[in-house]
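Re: SN-glycerol-3-phosphate structure - here you go.
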Amino acid sequence: MQIFLDTANIDQIREAAGLGIISGVTTNPSLVARETTSDYEAVTKKICSIVSGPVSVEVLAEDAEAMIKEARVKAAWAPNVNIKIPMTAEGLKATSVLSKEDIKINMTLCFSANQALLAALAGATYASIFIGRLDDAGHDGMQVVEDTMMILANYPELDAQLIAASIRNPMHVTRAALAGVDVATVPYAVLMQMMRHPLTDIGIKRFLADWKSVSKK
Ligand code: G3P
Protein backbone atom coordinates (compact mmCIF):
# COMPACT_ATOMS: atom_id res chain seq x y z
CA MET A 1 0.00 0.00 0.00
CA GLN A 2 1.14 3.52 -0.70
CA ILE A 3 0.67 6.44 1.66
CA PHE A 4 -0.24 9.86 0.34
CA LEU A 5 -0.30 12.92 2.58
CA ASP A 6 -3.70 14.64 2.71
CA THR A 7 -2.73 18.28 3.15
CA ALA A 8 -1.70 21.47 1.38
CA ASN A 9 0.64 22.48 4.20
CA ILE A 10 4.15 22.88 2.79
CA ASP A 11 5.96 22.35 6.12
CA GLN A 12 4.07 19.13 6.75
CA ILE A 13 4.75 17.90 3.21
CA ARG A 14 8.46 18.70 3.53
CA GLU A 15 8.63 16.93 6.88
CA ALA A 16 6.78 13.81 5.69
CA ALA A 17 8.73 13.67 2.42
CA GLY A 18 11.93 13.69 4.49
CA LEU A 19 10.76 10.48 6.19
CA GLY A 20 10.88 8.77 2.79
CA ILE A 21 7.51 7.07 3.19
CA ILE A 22 5.01 9.15 1.25
CA SER A 23 4.34 8.47 -2.42
CA GLY A 24 2.07 11.41 -3.19
CA VAL A 25 -0.11 14.23 -1.88
CA THR A 26 -3.84 14.93 -2.08
CA THR A 27 -5.28 18.41 -1.76
CA ASN A 28 -8.77 19.83 -1.97
CA PRO A 29 -10.19 23.38 -1.85
CA SER A 30 -10.81 23.15 1.93
CA LEU A 31 -7.21 22.06 2.60
CA VAL A 32 -5.80 24.87 0.44
CA ALA A 33 -8.12 27.44 2.08
CA ARG A 34 -6.83 26.28 5.48
CA GLU A 35 -3.41 27.54 4.39
CA THR A 36 -4.92 31.04 4.06
CA THR A 37 -4.09 31.33 0.38
CA SER A 38 -6.29 31.42 -2.65
CA ASP A 39 -3.36 30.77 -4.96
CA TYR A 40 -3.99 27.10 -5.73
CA GLU A 41 -1.48 27.22 -8.58
CA ALA A 42 1.40 28.52 -6.45
CA VAL A 43 0.69 25.98 -3.69
CA THR A 44 0.52 23.14 -6.21
CA LYS A 45 3.77 24.10 -7.90
CA LYS A 46 5.50 24.28 -4.52
CA ILE A 47 4.17 20.84 -3.52
CA CYS A 48 5.25 19.38 -6.87
CA SER A 49 8.77 20.72 -6.34
CA ILE A 50 8.96 18.65 -3.13
CA VAL A 51 7.08 15.48 -4.13
CA SER A 52 7.70 13.64 -7.39
CA GLY A 53 4.71 11.27 -7.01
CA PRO A 54 1.09 12.10 -7.84
CA VAL A 55 -0.29 15.35 -6.44
CA SER A 56 -4.09 15.59 -6.60
CA VAL A 57 -5.54 19.00 -7.40
CA GLU A 58 -9.31 19.50 -7.41
CA VAL A 59 -11.41 21.23 -10.03
CA LEU A 60 -13.96 23.80 -8.87
CA ALA A 61 -16.16 23.83 -11.97
CA GLU A 62 -19.45 21.95 -11.81
CA ASP A 63 -20.37 21.23 -15.42
CA ALA A 64 -18.45 18.80 -17.58
CA GLU A 65 -17.28 21.26 -20.21
CA ALA A 66 -15.89 23.70 -17.62
CA MET A 67 -14.35 20.83 -15.62
CA ILE A 68 -12.53 19.63 -18.73
CA LYS A 69 -11.16 23.11 -19.47
CA GLU A 70 -10.09 23.64 -15.85
CA ALA A 71 -8.53 20.17 -15.61
CA ARG A 72 -6.42 20.75 -18.74
CA VAL A 73 -5.09 24.02 -17.29
CA LYS A 74 -4.36 22.52 -13.84
CA ALA A 75 -2.77 19.36 -15.31
CA ALA A 76 -0.24 21.63 -17.04
CA TRP A 77 0.91 23.14 -13.71
CA ALA A 78 3.36 20.24 -13.21
CA PRO A 79 3.95 16.81 -14.76
CA ASN A 80 2.83 14.96 -11.61
CA VAL A 81 -0.50 16.76 -11.17
CA ASN A 82 -3.51 14.45 -11.02
CA ILE A 83 -6.95 15.98 -11.28
CA LYS A 84 -9.58 15.47 -8.59
CA ILE A 85 -13.08 15.43 -10.01
CA PRO A 86 -16.20 15.00 -7.87
CA MET A 87 -18.43 11.98 -8.36
CA THR A 88 -21.35 13.50 -10.24
CA ALA A 89 -22.86 12.86 -13.66
CA GLU A 90 -20.92 15.87 -14.97
CA GLY A 91 -17.80 14.55 -13.25
CA LEU A 92 -18.18 11.18 -14.95
CA LYS A 93 -18.58 12.84 -18.36
CA ALA A 94 -15.45 14.91 -17.78
CA THR A 95 -13.51 11.90 -16.50
CA SER A 96 -14.27 9.79 -19.56
CA VAL A 97 -12.97 12.58 -21.83
CA LEU A 98 -9.89 13.49 -19.76
CA SER A 99 -8.78 9.91 -19.08
CA LYS A 100 -8.45 9.42 -22.85
CA GLU A 101 -6.09 12.43 -22.94
CA ASP A 102 -3.73 10.76 -20.51
CA ILE A 103 -4.75 13.07 -17.66
CA LYS A 104 -4.88 11.04 -14.47
CA ILE A 105 -8.13 11.46 -12.58
CA ASN A 106 -8.76 10.96 -8.89
CA MET A 107 -12.55 10.71 -8.64
CA THR A 108 -13.35 12.18 -5.28
CA LEU A 109 -16.32 12.23 -2.89
CA CYS A 110 -17.19 8.55 -3.44
CA PHE A 111 -19.39 7.23 -0.65
CA SER A 112 -20.55 3.91 -2.10
CA ALA A 113 -19.10 0.91 -3.91
CA ASN A 114 -21.32 1.71 -6.91
CA GLN A 115 -19.90 5.23 -7.16
CA ALA A 116 -16.36 3.83 -7.11
CA LEU A 117 -17.34 1.26 -9.75
CA LEU A 118 -18.66 4.04 -12.00
CA ALA A 119 -15.44 6.02 -11.48
CA ALA A 120 -13.44 2.98 -12.60
CA LEU A 121 -15.68 2.48 -15.65
CA ALA A 122 -15.18 6.14 -16.63
CA GLY A 123 -11.43 5.57 -16.68
CA ALA A 124 -10.42 7.22 -13.40
CA THR A 125 -6.95 6.26 -12.19
CA TYR A 126 -8.13 6.54 -8.58
CA ALA A 127 -11.47 6.44 -6.77
CA SER A 128 -11.40 8.06 -3.32
CA ILE A 129 -13.77 6.66 -0.71
CA PHE A 130 -14.32 8.97 2.27
CA ILE A 131 -14.22 6.63 5.23
CA GLY A 132 -14.36 9.18 8.07
CA ARG A 133 -17.29 11.11 6.62
CA LEU A 134 -19.20 7.84 6.11
CA ASP A 135 -18.55 6.88 9.74
CA ASP A 136 -19.63 10.38 10.86
CA ALA A 137 -22.93 9.87 9.03
CA GLY A 138 -23.55 6.59 10.87
CA HIS A 139 -22.38 4.24 8.11
CA ASP A 140 -19.49 1.77 8.11
CA GLY A 141 -16.92 3.45 5.88
CA MET A 142 -14.56 0.50 5.97
CA GLN A 143 -17.29 -1.86 4.80
CA VAL A 144 -17.72 0.30 1.69
CA VAL A 145 -13.96 0.08 1.09
CA GLU A 146 -13.95 -3.72 1.55
CA ASP A 147 -16.94 -4.18 -0.77
CA THR A 148 -15.30 -2.02 -3.43
CA MET A 149 -12.05 -3.99 -3.20
CA MET A 150 -13.99 -7.22 -3.79
CA ILE A 151 -15.81 -5.73 -6.78
CA LEU A 152 -12.60 -4.45 -8.38
CA ALA A 153 -10.95 -7.85 -7.81
CA ASN A 154 -13.82 -9.47 -9.74
CA TYR A 155 -13.06 -7.33 -12.79
CA PRO A 156 -9.31 -7.17 -13.44
CA GLU A 157 -9.95 -5.21 -16.63
CA LEU A 158 -10.90 -2.25 -14.43
CA ASP A 159 -7.55 -0.87 -13.45
CA ALA A 160 -8.70 1.93 -11.12
CA GLN A 161 -6.92 2.08 -7.78
CA LEU A 162 -8.75 2.67 -4.54
CA ILE A 163 -7.77 5.52 -2.22
CA ALA A 164 -8.92 5.31 1.38
CA ALA A 165 -9.60 9.00 2.11
CA SER A 166 -11.07 11.00 4.99
CA ILE A 167 -8.83 9.03 7.32
CA ARG A 168 -9.30 10.03 10.96
CA ASN A 169 -7.12 7.64 12.95
CA PRO A 170 -4.37 5.00 12.62
CA MET A 171 -6.89 2.13 12.79
CA HIS A 172 -8.44 3.41 9.57
CA VAL A 173 -5.03 2.95 7.93
CA THR A 174 -4.49 -0.53 9.39
CA ARG A 175 -7.91 -1.68 8.27
CA ALA A 176 -7.45 -0.14 4.83
CA ALA A 177 -4.14 -2.02 4.49
CA LEU A 178 -5.79 -5.27 5.63
CA ALA A 179 -8.46 -4.72 2.98
CA GLY A 180 -5.66 -4.37 0.40
CA VAL A 181 -6.40 -0.80 -0.71
CA ASP A 182 -3.84 0.69 -3.07
CA VAL A 183 -3.44 4.01 -1.27
CA ALA A 184 -4.38 5.59 2.05
CA THR A 185 -4.29 9.38 2.02
CA VAL A 186 -3.47 10.39 5.54
CA PRO A 187 -3.52 13.72 7.41
CA TYR A 188 -0.17 14.69 8.94
CA ALA A 189 -1.42 14.22 12.53
CA VAL A 190 -2.46 10.63 11.77
CA LEU A 191 0.90 9.94 10.11
CA MET A 192 2.62 11.07 13.30
CA GLN A 193 0.31 8.87 15.40
CA MET A 194 1.16 5.89 13.17
CA MET A 195 4.88 6.44 13.70
CA ARG A 196 4.90 6.84 17.47
CA HIS A 197 4.46 4.33 20.26
CA PRO A 198 5.06 5.03 23.97
CA LEU A 199 6.90 1.71 24.37
CA THR A 200 9.36 2.78 21.65
CA ASP A 201 10.16 5.96 23.63
CA ILE A 202 10.50 4.00 26.89
CA GLY A 203 12.69 1.42 25.13
CA ILE A 204 15.07 4.09 23.78
CA LYS A 205 15.38 5.73 27.22
CA ARG A 206 16.13 2.36 28.84
CA PHE A 207 18.77 1.37 26.24
CA LEU A 208 20.54 4.72 26.68
CA ALA A 209 20.38 4.56 30.48
CA ASP A 210 21.78 0.99 30.49
CA TRP A 211 24.55 2.02 28.10
CA LYS A 212 25.49 5.03 30.22
CA SER A 213 25.65 2.88 33.38
CA VAL A 214 27.98 0.31 31.76
CA SER A 215 30.22 2.90 30.09
CA LYS A 216 30.93 4.47 33.52
CA LYS A 217 32.35 1.14 34.81
O1 G3P B 1 -8.91 14.67 0.64
C1 G3P B 1 -10.23 14.39 0.89
C2 G3P B 1 -10.50 13.80 2.26
O2 G3P B 1 -9.43 13.04 2.71
C3 G3P B 1 -11.04 14.78 3.24
O3 G3P B 1 -11.08 14.31 4.54
O4 G3P B 1 -11.27 14.76 6.95
O5 G3P B 1 -12.20 16.43 5.32
O6 G3P B 1 -13.31 14.22 5.68
P1 G3P B 1 -12.03 14.98 5.68
